[in-house]
Specification:
single chain, 17% strand, golgi apparatus, signal-anchor, two-stranded antiparallel ribbon, 9-stranded mixed sheet
Length: 369
């Protein structure tokens, strides 16, 4: 009897630890999904109603007639005669042709998912070098997938780049149902993302989906390059917004952002800029932990088949991972569970490793001082 009781206690101890382990691994995401849900919005503010009405009546024919005013290369025919379900717009640096080539050969080479059309285009500004501009012209002739704004592609102009992107979408690709804005260092799981968006067909409007950044404070340090003066933004916190690394908006939200942007300063960071515009339009961000933000999720084939995004630094790594994902069979429920568990644990360990390295570097600097 004593032996049986002991075994029972041991099993209870083991099961409780297994349960605790899973809560630690997956509980944070579940808590995020619950607490970061936006409450239902009622559009009673007259300014919000005005933005939404202006967006509904928006006419972009003037820009179409004066296309050279805002774009060096417009790719204005890229969406013509196509019913596009998801338009992926990839922010890229003019000099980074190797990364664009890697993206074209991997996740952006899909044109259809379950018979729904997917289109990927690259967004960039003007380079500082005329030689790079000539290379871009050759690249455009070969691939026909570049949109180049008439502004210098610099860190200070990334918010302007975002606005020009929105402007291009509602002018030349107004039939695209959803728009994915992402950055070139990201891996995007288009099939899984499309499957998710297909489930939103009953509520296809006011979609602003990504990894939520809640209650971020503006940078008030005048010595910092990202300094935001009080006269440009006076609130203590930014409104909740989706990380600019990757987010999805519906076509109507693109129009609302464009209308609301007239009263929002371009000095703000790109993600914050979009978040403020959507708030002015009465659109709440939708959080999903399947967006990684800037984090690199440690690779596992079945994990990457479930998540929407991950940061991938090197082109070679992106090509290897995509080849394994494309050649591999579908994952069973058990394989998906193991994959998510594996990549979650390894990603957490990577995070602790980076924290340790940063702490060591800080200690070294203090010692040197």
């Amino acid at each position: 009897m004593v032996f049986c009781r002991l075994r029972t206690h041991q099993w209870c101890f083991i099961l409780s630890n297994v349960l605790l382990f899973h809560l630690l691994i997956f509980g944070a995401d579940l808590m995020e999904e619950y607490f970061l849900r936006a409450l239902p919005t009622s559009y009673t503010d007259m300014k919000v109603l005005e933005v939404r009405e202006q967006a509904r009546k928006l006419d972009m024919s003037t820009l179409k007639a004066n296309i050279s005013r805002a774009y060096v290369v417009s790719s204005s025919e890229a969406c013509s005669d196509k019913e596009i379900f998801l338009l992926a717009l990839i922010f890229t640096s003019p000099e980074n042709s190797l990364r664009r080539s890697a993206i074209r050969g991997t996740w952006a080479n899909l044109t259809h998912v379950r018979d729904y059309t997917v289109l990927a285009l690259f967004l960039l500004g003007k380079p500082s070098s005329e030689a790079t501009q000539q290379e871009l012209i050759k690249e455009m002739k070969q691939h026909q997938d570049l949109i180049q704004g008439d502004f210098l592609d610099s860190p200070e102009n990334q918010t302007l780049k975002t606005l020009r992107t929105i402007e291009w979408v509602i002018t030349f690709c107004s039939q695209a149902r959803f728009i994915l804005k992402t950055e070139e260092e990201m891996f995007i799981n288009l099939p899984t993302l499309v499957e998710y968006l297909l489930n939103l067909r009953n509520h296809p409007e006011d979609i602003y989906l990504g990894r939520l950044v809640p209650q971020e404070t503006p940078n008030r340090d005048p010595q910092s390059h990202s300094y935001i003066p009080l006269h440009k933004y006076s609130e203590m916190y930014y409104p909740d917004y989706c990380s600019a690394t990757a987010f999805v908006i519906s076509q109507d939200v693109a129009r609302k952002i464009y209308v609301a942007s007239k009263e929002v300063p371009l000095i703000l960071p790109p993600g914050v800029f979009v978040g403020i515009c959507t708030k002015k339009a009465g659109v709440d961000p939708i959080h999903s932990s399947r967006f990684s933000g800037r984090r690199h999720i440690r690779y596992n084939r079945c994990c990457y088949k479930f998540i929407f995004t991950s940061s991938v630094a090197r082109e070679g790594q992106l090509l290897r991972e995509w080849e394994e994902m494309s050649n591999g069979k579908d994952c069973t429920l058990l394989e998906t569970y193991y994959g998510l568990l594996s990549c979650r644990v390894m990603t957490y360990l990577d995070g602790f490793k980076h924290l340790s390295v940063d702490a060591l570097q800080n200690e070294t600097l203090r010692a040197a001082d």
